[in-house]
Amino acid sequence: MMVGATRHLLIGILAVASQLGTTTSATVRSRDDSSSERSRCRYLPGDNEWPSLNEWASLNASISGRLIQVVPLGHVCHDPTYDAAACAALSSWTLPQTQWSDASGFTAAYQQNASCNPFTPQSTPCLQGNYVSYAINVSSAADVSAGIKFAQKKNIRLVIKNTGHDYLGKSTGTGALSIWTHHLKDIKILDYASPAYTGRALKLGAGVQGFEANNAAASAGLRIVGGECLTVGVVGGFTQGGGQSLLSTKYGMGADQTLEWEVVTADGTLVKASPTKNSDLYWGLSGGGPGTYGVVVSLTVKAFPDGVVGGANLFFTAAGISQDIYWGAVELWHTLIPSVVDAGAHTTWIVQPTFFTLYEITITDGTEALLRGLLKPFTDYLDANGVQYQMGVSSLPNYHSHVDRYLGPPPYGYDAASSLLEGGVMFNRSTFVSQNKKIVAHMRDMATTRDFFFPAYAFNVSRTPSSPNAVLPGWRNMLVYMESQKFWDFTVPFEEMAAQEAIMTNVVMPPLQDLAIGAYMNEADFNNPRWKQEFYGKNYNKLRAIKKKWDPKDLFYATTAVGSDVWKVAGDGRLCRA
Ligand SMILES: Cc1cc2nc3c(=O)[nH]c(=O)nc-3n(C[C@H](O)[C@H](O)[C@H](O)COP(=O)(O)OP(=O)(O)OC[C@H]3O[C@@H](n4cnc5c(N)ncnc54)[C@H](O)[C@@H]3O)c2cc1C
Ligand SMILES: *[C@@H]1O[C@H](CO)[C@@H](O)[C@H](O)[C@H]1NC(C)=O
Ligand SMILES: *[C@@H]1O[C@H](CO)[C@@H](O)[C@H](O)[C@H]1NC(C)=O
Ligand SMILES: *[C@@H]1O[C@H](CO)[C@@H](O)[C@H](O)[C@H]1NC(C)=O
Ligand SMILES: *[C@@H]1O[C@H](CO)[C@@H](O)[C@H](O)[C@H]1NC(C)=O
Ligand SMILES: *[C@@H]1O[C@H](CO)[C@@H](O)[C@H](O)[C@H]1NC(C)=O
């Protein structure tokens, strides 16, 4: 059985190898059956084939000592490396800043697998688990290239990590060598001219985070399209996955802002990708999924003259009012979304079982009177039903001050706890309007009986971008993106939270998915069985072909990335060809 399966796969590999004219067939033939079976998998520490210390040392020497042997951040909470003070400092475990500053860190709790966190007993050993084995703290394209070549040659898993924010756990992997881009912080402000765009631009190193790009833009009287979470990386997952922003109704998706990418590809060479140069790679990187086509070292994006921004927020709790009035308010708010977005807005709100937060309405050039007018039917309902609320309205001179007010405090913004269960769907306008009662009834049921909550945002990016890109076509018809979340509870056994993940996939999401036109790959369920269709839609096959061309051996793997189904992750985390 095993041997038969091996032969079958070998034939496949040989056929592909001969088509590509590579030397894979020679390598495969020279091994006996069991080691060729293993060479279909990435090697792990402990395997005979795992690089020797000398080999790691020579990689390290070739990159000026920038190689890190990764020890999971939580090791200070476990014997024999327990350190009471250092462990206490990890009480901020779920905040992204705790994770991004360390080579090992990432926030996706399911993928952390409770193998080395501050919440398990001190006597429990710290296991490497899903944490990478080595990381290169890259400072240049040459460092990236050395890492890629080493991983290819030694048949070990490669991971790209920027901030580690990814909800699906894409920025980690068992036994991997990680390309850690966090310290690529260069920012240049440019006057840019190309057939597609003439104007100001920012050239951003791969490690630049939203708040850093915002600050640089503001200092030149400009603004750029970055995420709501100010610490998300602009160049990594955000823009490559699509990128939604407070400024999206005005300017489009993050991926609609791209002018040119600098990328180290799977063969270790540095290339440029723009609408006119390597345009297929440009198309795929701009919305076709992060961690899939190459390692980006920089991205140049459009920047716009700054100016007045109107805003509003509103908050109330369910205390002292009936559940029908509370959920009636949610339903009423939903009916106002089309008129709010048509006024040029982007808006974000969160429906919790016991409180409602309208985080922001953002309208460029909006006046306070406009915002009050848009909210009037909502405040009328709240007043009529005796709901006490807090509301704020503003019209500030620039985007920077608007961001500080609605997403602050600077620099990182509100405490964006991001160890959560995550799912999401996008609704088009007609469905969101006609199915409002049904959607809210399901939210109410899931909030009340399952304790899930629902962040959502609405905006309009229907406008065709200046250069074609791989953004999921559904975004162009989307009115509302709705997430389903639940905070990860680290104090209960891991299995209980894993069971909650299954409830999300099988109970919370399907009724919403049945009404949806897709999902945002960055804010979605990693277990979504419909991921190919929902995350990529009709772009999938074209993206797969682009990946085949630029990454013929499928070096770049991330869960639910294009082409990821050629690999399978085994129970011990080993990546093997499916
Ligand atoms: C609190 C919070 C709020 C968020 N708010 C928003 C929002 O407002 N709008 C929005 O659109 N999204 C938002 N997101 C989602 C966010 O866009 C994704 O989590 C995104 O993947 C983060 O990208 P990163 O590069 O910072 O993180 P990472 O986890 O480091 O990387 C994410 C993915 O990008 C890949 N990658 C990173 N750098 C590179 C590179 N240089 N080259 C190639 N691949 C790379 C990684 O391999 C991984 O697959 C939010 C997430 C969180 C946790
Ligand atoms: C790489 O070299 C630097 C500088 O010599 C050293 O500090 C570091 O520990 C080395 N990394 C590994 C993994 O050995
Ligand atoms: C996750 O934890 C389980 C239970 O401890 C273990 O069996 C499994 O191997 C772990 N996965 C990884 C990738 O380490
Ligand atoms: C990574 O490199 C940067 C400089 O590029 C340095 O400031 C930082 O301390 C390094 N981090 C680690 C963990 O080696
Ligand atoms: C977005 O705006 C365009 C132009 O005003 C409009 O035709 C379209 O219906 C809007 N889309 C949504 C989802 O509201
Ligand atoms: C809106 O989405 C629904 C799926 O919920 C689909 O059946 C319908 O055709 C879409 N309508 C428009 C106008 O795109």
TrEMBL record:
GO terms for molecular function: FAD binding; oxidoreductase activity. Pfam families: BBE, FAD_binding_4. Belongs to the oxygen-dependent FAD-linked oxidoreductase family. InterPro entries: BBE (IPR012951), FAD-bd_PCMH (IPR016166), FAD-bd_PCMH-like_sf (IPR036318), FAD-bd_PCMH_sub2 (IPR016169), FAD-linked_Oxidoreductases_BP (IPR050432), Oxid_FAD_bind_N (IPR006094). This is FAD/FMN-containing dehydrogenase. Residues 127-306 form the FAD-binding PCMH-type domain. Residues 1-25 form the signal peptide. It comes from the Eukaryota. It comes from Amniculicola lignicola CBS 123094. Keywords: Oxidoreductase, Signal. Gene3D superfamilies: 3.30.465.10.
